[in-house]
Amino acid sequence: MNQETGKLYVVATPIGNLADITFRAIETLKNVDLIAAEDTRHVKMLLQHYGISNKVIALHQHNEDKAALEIVEKLRSGLSIALVSDAGTPLISDPGMPVVKAVHDANLIVVPIVGACALIAGLSAAGVAITPFTFEGFVPRTSSARQTFFSERANILTTWVFYESCHRVLDCLRDMAIVLPPERSIVIARELTKLHETIIKLPLIDMLALVEKEANMRKGEFVIIVEGSPKMDVSENVITVEQERILKLLLAECSVKKAVELTVEITGGKKKPIYQAALQITESEKLKIE
Question: What pLDDT score does 236 carry?
Fold first, then answer.
């Protein structure tokens, strides 16, 4: 591609099925001067499949700040560059943000070449409200941090989505079940566009049981979609200052279950918000100790 200054093309590549690539993406990968890839070995398999022979350089989370400066200089010299990740649309929980920002800061042109994205693919087939939705990327790796993460989002009214790995999906659902109501609708979209693609929508309690039982439900790459909290009177979810004071005193001496039962009996409050408050209090105390 010949122009006075080069352009950076952000090119979406397949997330599984190699046929899920646009004609425009193929032409772009053929015609640019250079391809910057998250994993050069991975992208070379895609290029070989489509008969593309082009120079590939590595661009990953460990070198992208330095590489960003080099890419800007190459673009200024007139070279055009395609940015790709291992799968899907770059920057969506993948490397590339420093590069795109640096190119914009240099007043050079960034061109999106649209295509596959696991996030959008999962949402399109989930059967939940997606206007609006929130994308959370990957959730925290530790149990305590995940529970805090879920607690902070428990009462959000809109759908929220995150990615998870096969190594943590079961623990993730177990932490979610501690925090969210058991009837909350959850969608698991795994191995999208691949041979063992699975998209299932279930109440959280049933989803957890399924993933615990079925080993195949713990394999692959996961998009997890959480339906928003139903609208309700805010007062139903809030405990009073006095209820919280009594609950904290009881938690210092009793189990969560017993402290909740006694607080309900003493104050006449509703069990659900008092129980949720007890979980948040005990989790906060754990974090202080850690």
Answer: 59
- Tokens 């001067």 belong to residue: 33
Number of domains in the chain: 3
**pLDDT score recorded for residue 50:** 96
Task: Give residue 1's pLDDT.
Answer: 45
Question: Among the three residues 73, 99, 116, which one is the final residue of a domain in this structure?
Answer: 116
Domain range enclosing 32: 7-116
The domain boundary residue, chosen from 86, 116, 146: 116
Half-sphere exposure of residue 16: CA atoms within 13 angstroms, side-chain side: 14
Q: b/e map of 10-32 (b: 16 or more CB within 10 Å)?
A: bbbbbbbeeebbeeebbebbeeb
- Does the pTM surpass 0.85? The reply is no
What's the length of the chain? 290
Whether residue 2 lies inside any domain: the answer is no
pLDDT confidence of residue 61: 80
- Asked whether residue 95 is assigned to any structural domain, the reply reads yes
The residues of the chain scoring below 70 in pLDDT are 1-3, 232-237, 285-290
Q: What share of the chain is helix, strand, coil (3-state, %, to 5)?
A: 45, 20, 35
What's residue 235's pLDDT?
55
Instruction: Based on the fold, state whether residues 54 and 140 are members of the same structural domain.
Output: no
**What strands lie across the sheet with 34-37, from one edge to the other?**
56-58, 34-37, 81-84, 7-11, 109-113
| Letter string b/e over residues 99-124, b meaning 16 or more CB atoms within 10 A of that residue's CB | bbebbeebebeeeebebbbbbbbbbe
The answer to the question of residue 180 being in a domain is: yes
